[in-house]
Amino acid sequence: MAPKPAGRKRLNLGLQGGGAHGAFTWGVLDRLFEEDEIEIVGTSGTSAGAMNAAVMAYGLAIGGKAGARAKLAEFWQRIGDAARFSPLQPSPVDRWFGLGNMDHSPGWMFFDNLSRMLSPYELNPANFNPLRDIVADVVDFAALAEQCSRHVVTLYLCATNVETGRIKVFEGDEIGLDAVMASACLPYLFQAVEVDGAHYWDGGFSGNPPIFPLIYGTDCADVLIIQINPINIDAVPKTARAILDRMNTLAFNSSLMREMRAIDFVTRLIDEERLDPGRYKRLNIHTIDAEDVFKTLGVSSKINADPVFLRSLFELGRECCAQFLEAHQDKIGVESSADTQATFL
């Protein structure tokens, strides 16, 4: 293989949400940070992507790439450890098939049915959320906010305002524990998160992840989107559970699909010299995904924090990142490696 050209490869990251599937993103980032020449300029994250983004940014701020890898490993290890005591565990049948779904788990089936009849305000009036304690223990948000406000780390976290339906992008000194939990607040699991008098649900409803903050907030023209929500499936869903699963992925992909259409439109206008490239940023889009795997996984797998399952997604993420780097690292800073029209239009 020919040697790679010298020089820094500057990247913005877009991290999708998807619950436990975020362990795939952990694997991608872990492998990415083994590359000395790659520099992360900015990161936009939603839900599990927001958690990965906050943990990663804090690790980068205190210890560079090695610090980011260590903090991400600590975070996901803590999640796996907590899951050992959770009633929402995969059944022996689920483990045998090895898909990560928990459709045969008594705990999942009981919870799934109960959540359709009672809200989090009725089921969990104390608003207990074990993830909140884990995130708080892993990230020093005072230190992270200081780094963000000084622009040492450029971080954007997306949530959805419940009352207005508008997207909220937390940045700078707005970044805190409540912002992360707001971005990851699934309304059938948790009560809306209040931040400065406004109430928020999961950012996936409005931006998963939003790309526009990276366009306006950084000088980097390359965006790597780590996708954990499948766009394509093989057949029309016909069971109630499969239909709900597809509705979930459609809802959480819709904002990214619309934004990518707009980006493609502007890119074509720039290339046709109908827009001034001095005023409009031309983006290079890159993607890493494992759609063939994720399209086999249902909604139940997104709350499967079994350590074996998380580790398998981590290893898959590392493998997919290695394949991306082998095929496309030279394109960073030069051209898009993703076919946005084929994927998103």
Can you walk through the features of this model?
This protein is 47% helix and 14% strand. With 345 residues, it is an alpha/beta fold. Strands 1, 2, 3, 4, 5, 6, 7 and 8 form an 8-stranded mixed sheet that branches. α1 (22-32) packs across α12 (307-328) and α2 packs antiparallel against α7 (141-149). Residues 1-5 have low confidence and may be disordered.
Give the helices and strands, then pairings.
Elements: E1 9-15, H1 22-32, E2 38-46, H2 48-83, H3 92-97, H4 106-115, H5 120-123, H6 130-138, H7 141-149, E3 154-161, E4 167-171, H8 177-183, E5 193-195, E6 198-202, H9 212-217, E7 222-226, H10 240-271, E8 284-288, H11 291-294, H12 307-328, H13 340-344
Parallel strand pairs: 1-2, 1-7, 2-3, 7-8
Antiparallel strand pairs: 3-4, 3-6, 5-6
Q: Structural class, please? A: alpha/beta
List the helices and strands in order. Answer: EHEHHHHHHEEHEEHEHEHHH
Largest sheet at a glance? 8 strands, mixed
Fraction of residues in helix: 40-55%
The N- and C-terminal alpha carbons lie at a distance of: 34 Å
Please provide the count of β strands.
Answer: 8
Multimeric organization: single chain
Radius of gyration: 19 Å
Q: Given the C-alpha coordinates, what overall shape results? A: globular
